[in-house]
Specification:
Elements (H helix, E strand, L loop, with lengths): L4 E3 H31 L7 H26 L1 E3 L14 E5 L5 E7 L10 E3 L3 H6 L7 E6 L2 E11 L3
């Protein structure tokens, strides 16, 4: 089960995608389907079949986004978070081998297409929550425990 949290930026991005699909792409694809259907035999009409399939994909994504946006809780930055790792933080961590990673802890729906975002539900994020700079987080991985030292915590304001 995914945590139903999202940053303000993530919420805006999903809302923009929903608006684009509903107001721009769907009407355009609907016109193409109607045009292709008017040509006659639909069973061998590639334009009709492709655009009908695309219309189903758009409708499925629109339903998902509408339901998702209704259920998500937007979490904004609060000054009380400063100095500790909470939802929305940019965190820089380093392990004993000197490997450094920097990422932002965000909601599940925000991580796609971004290599520098991790879900609040990820083991790394869970291990880091409420920690401060200088603390060590122990992350359970399939290979065993991994120790990560927190170098930096920042919040977008």
């Amino acid at each position: 089960m995914k945590t139903q949290l999202i940053t303000r930026q993530g919420y805006s991005k999903l809302k923009q995608e929903l608006d684009y699909l509903w107001r721009e792409e769907r009407p355009e694809v609907t016109k193409k389907v109607a045009w292709a259907a008017s040509l006659g035999d639909r069973s061998e009409n590639a334009d009709y079949q492709y655009n009908k399939k695309r219309l189903r994909e758009i409708d499925r994504r629109v339903r998902y986004l509408a339901q998702c946006l209704e259920q998500l809780k937007v979490i904004d930055y609060a000054p009380q978070q400063e100095g500790k790792v909470f939802f929305g933080a940019w965190v820089e961590v380093e392990n004993d081998n000197g490997d450094v990673k920097r990422f932002r802890i965000v909601g599940y729906d925000e991580i796609f297409g971004r290599k520098d975002y991790i879900s609040i539900d990820a083991p790394m994020a869970r291990a880091l929550l409420k920690k401060e700079v200088g603390d060590t987080a122990i992350v359970n991985t399939p290979q065993g425990e991994a120790w990560w030292h927190i170098n930096k915590i920042e919040y977008p304001k």
